Each structure stands twice: as structure tokens, then as C-alpha cells.
TrEMBL record:
SUPFAM superfamilies: Acyl-CoA N-acyltransferases (Nat) (SSF55729)
Keywords, comma-separated and alphabetical: Cell membrane, Membrane, Transmembrane, Transmembrane helix
Membrane disposition: Multi-pass membrane protein
Any GO CC annotation of this UniProt entry: plasma membrane
Protein name (database record): N-acetyltransferase domain-containing protein
Keyword Transmembrane among UniProt keywords: yes
A Gene Ontology biological process term: phospholipid homeostasis
All copies of domain N-acetyltransferase, residue ranges: 153-291
Region (Disordered): 455-479
Spans through the membrane: 336-357, 393-414, 426-446
Length: 479
């Protein structure tokens, strides 16, 4: 069977990686989201086309002396196609050669694996996490690519189960660009590790090479939502020992996004986004592993570009081009912030109900005040649910809001529709019907995702919750 043109292209990129892959993100450019722009026989840029921009994954894959030339040519090629261009996840090596504006987007930790034993000796808390996992019967081991290549094999099936349970437990929809989950592509180039307890796989780590630095990037670090505490640390420990035995000089867990002295606007985004993504928790997890140093990671904006537009382009790349679609998908997963938002929105809505003239909008004053009382109770319950997850309360609220939507529609058809006097009245009735309908949809969707989140919470009991996910230079390790 002849290989496809896409496979041949990726084999060409792999050959360039093996010669010039210096960035931690370099191996990730083999994943399926990427297109490739070649500059001669010995240089390439991997990028995502958002429709408005070409967003490159790190610096070009090129000899060090050709980085700037390749970057300039890539920007010109993008402009010829009516696209902006930027480079996400670059390091100081690139910006020293290519004159461009840089925006710090976070920091990545780096270890010399030969000194991992010193890290363990210096950190009592880390040793305790390893002890706790082992006391629960967790064992971490390296596995050969051959054990995972067969998609129907028993170990591969168990790992796939961990991946599925991890993915369903995330408060945000899964993203693309540098954080898509493709741990089984080019398996012969990777290092694999599993954590097992009682015959079940409870954690998985896939490490990829950083060829030009004799290093490893611990790319995919996943634990089952119900895995014992210390499982992730045990996998990292096994990977560090393997890297040291193989003579690696460099190991990274990838970017801790928005860590370090980022700009004020990004600090505000870190605070506002904390309910969906635990930036501080991710940084704390990586920091407790005592890295030898932290390296700054930048967004590089070519001359003539604009930083805010570049940030928008990067977000579109992670959202696979559809920010609105990604936002809706995240809302349907039912993160706690959704319940809080519904509770907050009910406050002004209930006030408007209380002020509305009963004769015009309700069959009777008793009906009006019944709706007001119901919405007050609903708002309080939503706010409680946002702070203290409860499957039974979520089920009750989903049922009540569904009944609310049905009764509101019935009242709108039988009472309000015949009394509509114009466009404003029609809009008010439409909003009154749509609001509980949309809320019911969000609650039932959250109910579907609740079992995975509950398992994650159960797995965290008895200790500080740290649940790393993907250790990528674009934030694949997330609490």
C-alpha cells in the first residue's frame, strides 16, 4: 500500500526535526492539525491556518543560522495569501536572531535528569507523594511502543479508557493546535509510561524527543479521575529515571501558561479565567517538582503586526478556528462558572418580574409572585451548586428548569401571545421562553458530564487535589 501524500510530508518533517528540532514544541508539529510551509530543502514552518492568520508552532525547523531568513519568508508567504502571521511558543534563541516584538506568555520548567535524585532528596513533600501512591498499590513502568501500537490490544484499550475519562472530566472543551491528544502517532519515536494499580491503568505518560537538545518533553501526562494521589508524580519519577539512564541532558514538562511576569492584560485574563483553567495550580504542580530553571516562552509578533490581533489568532488556533463554537462546547460541559452565571443573571430577571404589572404580563397576581418566589429559590440554588457540586441538586434543578420552560411556553402561547402589542412585547415574550429553555439544555448537558467530574473529586479526597492532564508547551498539563 502506497503511503499517502500527507504521510510522506510528515516523514519529511520528521527528518527535519531529527536535524533541527530544538524547541520543546518541535515534535508536536507532526500532529494532524498542522500544515507545512517549506523553505528550500532544509527548512520548514509548521502552522495552523485560522482563516485570518497563519499561526506557527514555535520557531521554524531550520539550521540556527537560517531561523531569521525562514521566518521572514514565512511571514511574506502568509501576507501573499491575505493572512497575518505570528509564532507561538518561541524561546530566546529565536528572538535573538529574528527582530520582532515578543510577548511573554508563560514559563516552562526544565530539569537535568541526571540530578533527579538530588531533587528527591531535597523535597520531603515529593517523596511523600511517591510514598502515598506506592502505598495504594500504584506501580509506574516504561512500556515499549509495540505494546501500544495495536489499537485492539489490552494495554492500549486500558490507556484509551484513561484518556476518555480524563477528557470527559475537563471543564473546558478539548482544544487543538499544540494541545490535541494524539499520543500514538510516530510511536517508535516516543517513550511511554503507565501507572497501574490492581491490574487497572490509572495513569499514562507519553514523552517525545527534543532531538537537538538530547532531551525529552513529557507531553501527555494523564491520570484517571479516580487515581490515587501521587500517580502523576510517580509517572514523572519513572520518566526522569529513564531519561537519566538514556543520557538525556534536558527534560521539560512544557509551558505553565501565564506564569511569570506577564503583561497586566494577561494577568487579568489569568484571574478571569481561573474558574475554567487553574493556572496557579498548574504552575504549583510543576514548581513542586523542583525544576533546575524556568525558561520564558513568548508569542513572537512580526514587524508591522499587532499584539492583540496575534493573541486573538492564537486563541482561534487553539479553538480550531471557531471561538464561538468552542465557547458553546465549553458551556455545554457545565463548568461551575455556568451555574454561577445562571444564578447571577436570575437576579436582575427576578427584579424585573417583581416590577412588571401583573395584569399585563401574568394571568393573575398570584401567578406573578409564584414565579418571583420560584426564581429567587432557583438563583440561590444555582449559586450554591457553583460552589459545592451536588449530583442530586443538579438533577433537581435540571428537572425544575425544564418544567419552568414548559410552563413558560404554555403561558406565552395561551396568555401572552394574544396580548402582544408590538415588536418590544414580542421580544420580551421570546426572551422569557428562550431563557429557561437554554438553561435547561445547559443543566442537562452538565448532568451528562457530572459522573466524570464526580469521579475526579472522589479521587482527590484524602489529600490536596492535583490532577495534571497534559504537559505541553501549550499547557497540556492542567490541574
Amino acid at each position: 500500500m502506497q503511503p499517502s501524500p500527507e504521510s510522506l510530508e510528515r516523514e519529511r518533517v520528521l527528518a527535519l526535526l531529527q536535524r533541527h528540532g530544538w524547541n520543546a514544541t518541535s515534535f508536536q508539529t507532526l500532529e494532524s492539525d498542522f500544515r507545512y510551509w517549506f523553505h528550500g530543502d532544509d527548512a520548514c514552518v509548521a502552522y495552523v491556518d485560522t482563516g485570518a492568520a497563519w499561526v506557527a508552532a514555535g520557531a521554524p525547523l531550520a539550521p540556527a543560522e537560517r531561523l531569521a531568513d525562514t521566518a521572514r519568508a514565512f511571514v511574506e508567504a502568509a501576507a501573499a495569501q491575505g493572512r497575518r502571521a505570528c509564532f507561538f511558543g518561541t524561546e530566546a534563541r529565536f528572538s535573538r536572531q529574528y527582530r520582532c516584538a515578543t510577548l511573554l506568555i508563560g514559563e516552562q520548567p526544565v530539569w537535568d535528569p541526571s540530578r533527579w535524585a538530588d531533587v528527591l532528596r531535597s523535597s520531603r513533600s515529593l517523596r511523600e507523594q511517591l510514598r502515598r501512591a506506592r502505598a495504594k498499590g500504584v506501580i509506574a513502568r516504561a512500556v515499549s511502543p509495540a505494546e501500544l501500537e495495536d489499537a485492539s490490544g489490552p494495554l492500549r484499550q486500558k490507556v484509551e479508557g484513561v484518556i476518555a475519562r480524563w477528557a470527559s472530566s475537563r471543564p473546558m472543551a478539548l482544544m487543538g493546535f499544540l494541545v490535541q491528544l494524539e499520543p500514538f502517532s510516530f510511536p517508535r519515536e516516543r517513550r511511554y509510561f503507565v501507572a497501574e494499580a490492581g491490574g487497572a491503568v490509572v495513569g499514562f505518560l507519553s514523552a517525545v524527543p527534543v532531538y537537538a537538545r538530547r532531551g525529552l518533553f513529557l507531553e501527555d501526562l494523564l491520570r484517571d479521575p479516580a487515581a490515587p494521589n501521587g500517580t502523576a508524580e510517580l509517572l514523572v519519577d519513572q520518566a526522569m529515571r529513564t531519561a537519566a539512564a538514556e543520557g538525556c541532558a534536558y527534560v521539560t514538562l512544557g509551558l505553565a501558561p501565564l506564569a511569570g511576569p506577564v503583561a497586566s492584560g494577561l494577568r487579568a485574563a489569568r484571574r478571569l479565567g481561573a474558574r475554567l483553567y487553574d493556572f496557579r495550580g498548574l504552575y504549583a504542580f510543576k514548581a513542586k517538582l523542583r525544576p533546575g530553571r524556568w525558561e520564558p516562552i513568548d508569542l513572537a509578533v512580526p514587524p508591522g503586526g499587532h499584539g492583540l490581533l496575534a493573541i486573538h489568532d492564537v486563541l482561534a488556533a487553539f479553538a480550531r478556528g471557531g471561538l464561538l463554537r468552542f465557547g458553546v462546547a465549553t458551556l455545554l460541559r457545565g463548568p461551575a462558572v455556568v451555574f454561577e452565571l445562571l444564578g447571577v443573571l436570575l437576579v436582575p430577571w427576578t427584579a424585573l418580574l417583581a416590577l412588571a404589572p401583573a395584569a399585563r404580563w401574568f394571568p393573575s397576581p398570584a401567578v406573578k409572585w409564584a414565579w418571583v418566589a420560584f426564581d429567587v429559590g432557583l438563583a440561590l440554588a444555582m449559586l450554591r451548586l457553583s460552589r459545592r457540586p451536588s449530583p442530586s441538586l443538579l438533577l433537581l434543578l435540571a428537572t425544575l428548569v425544564t418544567c419552568d420552560a414548559a410552563l413558560t411556553l404554555l403561558q406565552a402561547v395561551l396568555f401572552n401571545a394574544p396580548r402582544v402589542r408590538g415588536a418590544l412585547d414580542a421580544a420580551i415574550v421570546a426572551v422569557a421562553v428562550a431563557a429557561p429553555t437554554v438553561a435547561a439544555l445547559l443543566l442537562w448537558s452538565a448532568r451528562l458530564h457530572a459522573p466524570a467530574r464526580r469521579a475526579r473529586a472522589d479521587g482527590a479526597r484524602g489529600g490536596r487535589r492535583v490532577s495534571p492532564s497534559r504537559g505541553a508547551a501549550a499547557s497540556r498539563t492542567s490541574p
